[in-house]
Amino acid sequence: MVQVWRPDGSMERYIIEEEGGRRLVSVEHGDGVLKFYGGKPLSERLVSVKFPDGEVQQCEGERGAERVVRAHFPDGEVQHCEGERGAERVVREEFPSGEVQHCEGERGAERLVREEFPNGEMHYFEGERGAERLAGKDFPNGDVHYFEGEQGAERLAGKDFPNGDVQYHKGEKGSERMVRQDRSDGVQFYEGEQGGERLVRKHFPNGAVQYYEGENGVERLVRLELPNRQVQYYGGEMNAERVLRLQFPDGRVLHLEGERGAERCVR
To answer: Measured between alpha carbons, how far is residue 20 from residues 23, 40, 41 in Å?
Structure first.
């Protein structure tokens, strides 16, 4: 091993080859930066750089065009880079927790676009660097959540489910409430605060509309409007509603009594 001191205070280390000549293996700079080289004599190329804070950069490319492809940090974080020398941009960051972040954009303006978690959950982001906002979440069970709002104030706007159901939400972050649910058997509308949303109306594909009253979990059917303009009025608790009155388009009204399924006309 041969050591050569430069005027700037850095030190070069060389290995003398058997066939003659010397090969540069490292350069230690006065500021503590240590560079390592590989390749044949006179063609040595930079392969890694170690910084005083523990960061290690790995490089690839021909001599004079070496570019950073990875950066390892003391806390276990690893950054993956793409681009030519001097314009390398971060495209992926891996964390010890197993989380992986994907980035897009030119060097210095890389923005977060996707975040993957060990449990299979994925988050999607939109917006410029430093202002990335959560736009969506994919869950391992197939659920998809959509968000609206600026960074830090993203609010849940909707949910898609594997069975085809779709939910719509309103409200500020942390207090989003479901207001509508599209299902294969119709469209349901809700009112009430988060966690206490109650069903108030249900539209069926054939044009029928049901109206409900009552608190969350005990909503009871009170009216049914049929496509032929007939209206049915109900009384009774949830799952025991019985027809009390029938109103026909021509103005006739029938009154009924009796338990559910056994209602009889009384006048």
So the answer is: 10, 11, 9
